Amino acid sequence: MKRFDFSDQIMIARLEAYSEYIPETENTFFVDADSIFISELKFPKNSTKKIFLSLRKNDFKLNDSYPEYYEEFVNKTAIEAMPFLFGAIAVIGNQQKFFKEILSIARNLPKRFHRWYGDQYALKKYIDKGFEEFERLNIDIYLNIIREPLMPSYLKEALEKKVQLITFKGPQSKMYLSQALVLLNIFHKN
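Request: output the structure for the sequence above.
Response:
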């Protein structure tokens, strides 16, 4: 077992972990902790790229005062400020350099970004600097976001649509995740 001494700031710690991880397989999928694979992962094929990012699908006006004041978000939408989601990133091979670049940018952001949003905001800044060596993941398949308990009808429909990853968001997400594990276990036994 290998132990790391990561930052106590969640966004920096996440990027430190990603940049220190040495893949044990050719394909690696980085996901949020409130996510679950509902079917066998099928990695994107026929690409010359080695990094796959999730482009935000739904846009909304950012609340520049939550959870603290972010002057960078005043009169901005989510797609303007953070067009890529960090909840699903797929890589082929060792992409530590990619994550180290984002970590370097994040460390130089104001401290509030070390607590919230720093990963997504730093990723946008990295892409704005000219990084184009990526393809987009289909978030309907690889980052399907739900904000309620996983119901059998939703699971059946998601599996028919070949959804591979669902992510729970909202205040009850941890409870929904444990319920989903039980449902998946029952569903896949039948």
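Residues 44 and 137 are 8 Å apart (CA to CA).
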